[in-house]
């Protein structure tokens, strides 16, 4: 007799969730620790090469990078954790016992799906409150070659802007309104498309009337006269507004979903392309939801007789499906960023495709 309840047994559901969560978290901790050590080995030399940096800065880098690594590899850890749990259940004939009790494959997976939805919610909140702040700070710090950066929540790094025929590059941009500041500014003057002057500026801020910028610490090279000039202060960039620097570098990974929506609206009002930002906005939703797919893709390891000798093959197939999803997701997001795919399709396409693939494999495995 087939039991039609969504979760026929509370104890069984708790047992499955415990296996799922503990193994996923164990894989996540091990994976993040290994990746963090490898990352720190590669970056510690650059951090300590800056005068004044020491052990405290190394620990600061670790504290900033850990949330990013945990967020990025949680769905992958859920895949491996589910595969480990299902392989163990299969080898001990626990799945056979569940099916003998009248449970279908979907009922066996139901507790894991519910737990995955909860994990997706936690990951979404974690991304929007912790990860975006860490990404913004660590990106600005690394782009500044690990020199101190202003402790401002709106700090941006490596910002490029085009003003007419001229190009402007700012190493750091931070603040709001009249407190907006640029550091490490480079202005490339290109009348009629020919590079004539390169001006390096240590600090820049909007003028009081908002029509131009006030500069401090100027070094200018004139290519026509082959001459270098230096000045303590100056003015320039007439007509360039601070908002143009903010819109020049809209990074979805460094903005929460509400701030990103405001920047997308500002980009569209300014007549600038917003496909990359909109694809990133949709991916903020589908990224955490990928944890929902992992039990479905890994379920192929749970069904089939253990004595058939195909448990390892089934686990490999489940892992291959999970890897294929991550590859397809990154490829689709890149196409959406480039404007080849519509932003919503770039984010939702791989999710819906692999949801159907997972359901198909699950039904075929149950048969």
In short:
The chain is of the alpha+beta class and 367 residues long. It has nine helices and six strands.
Distance between the termini: 17 Å
For the biggest sheet, the summary is: 6 strands, antiparallel
**Weakly predicted, low-confidence segments:** none
Structural class: alpha+beta
Helical percentage: 55-70%
Total domains, how many?
2
**Count of DSSP H/I helices:** 9
Order of helices and strands: HHHHEEEEEEHHHHH
Radius of gyration: 26 Å
- Mean pLDDT level: 83
Shape: elongated
Q: How many strand elements?
A: 6
Biggest sheet: strands side by side, in what order? 1-2-3-4-5-6
Strand content: 15-25%
Keywords: Cell membrane, Membrane, Transmembrane, Transmembrane helix
Organism: Sphingomicrobium lutaoense
Subcellular location: Cell membrane
Protein name: Lipopolysaccharide export system permease protein
